[in-house]
Specification:
seven-stranded antiparallel β-sheet, single chain, globular
Length: 195
């Protein structure tokens, strides 16, 4: 069975895969590196040309993609398979009508222990764990001022918008306010599947 590549879940999956790998797919070497990353992460193979078509890098852009490829990429993102990835995405998105929207995660929709990954330009990425009562702790950070162990409060995470962190606390320092992605907003946002 093939799935259309023009659905928002595919875009969210591409973001999640790039976030897990820690790099964007912008050139030939990036796709080669991603093939290796996928094989190391999942012990499955997805070809460079398949990735290039799915990411729109190839002149032969894919209109559909196999469920098998989506299952492998979903495993890279930390989910069991494509169905699990979509279920997780739907549970963390706010639906305002019958149309799918995967761009917003409200803290009130999270359970203690849930993990979110968000990123912003040019190459910053953080994974945080929900502590309850709108509080989060940073578990990993790439190219950001935020460090592992930092805590903060946030009511909502929205792709394309800046993220305001209240009561930002680092051990040995006083509380501050911190804004993330103040120029172009969050470019990556998803709920991690693993607890």
């Amino acid at each position: 069975m093939d799935i259309s590549t023009n659905i928002p879940q595919i875009s969210a999956l591409r973001d999640a895969v790039e976030a897990k790998a820690g790099f964007r797919l912008k050139g030939t070497n990036d796709f080669l590196s991603m093939v290796d990353f996928i094989e190391l992460s999942t012990r499955n193979h997805v070809s460079e040309t398949t990735l290039q078509r799915l990411w729109g890098y190839s002149t032969r852009k894919a209109d559909v993609v196999s469920v098998r490829t989506l299952d492998v990429l979903s495993k890279v993102a930390g989910c069991k398979d494509w169905e699990d990835f979509c279920r997780n995405l739907k549970e963390t998105s706010r639906e305002e009508s019958e149309f799918f929207s995967g761009d917003t995660i409200d803290s009130s929709s999270l359970e203690v222990g849930d993990r979110l990954t968000f990123g912003w330009g040019p190459d910053r990425m953080c994974t945080v764990r929900y502590l309850g009562e709108n509080r989060f702790v940073c578990e990993s950070s790439q190219n950001s001022k935020m460090k592992e162990g930092d805590t903060f409060s946030a009511l909502q995470f929205q792709k394309g918008r800046e993220l305001y962190l209240d009561h930002f606390k680092r051990e040995g320092e006083s509380e501050k306010r911190y804004v993330v992605g103040d120029l172009h907003g969050l470019t990556v946002l998803y709920r991690s599947c693993e607890k």
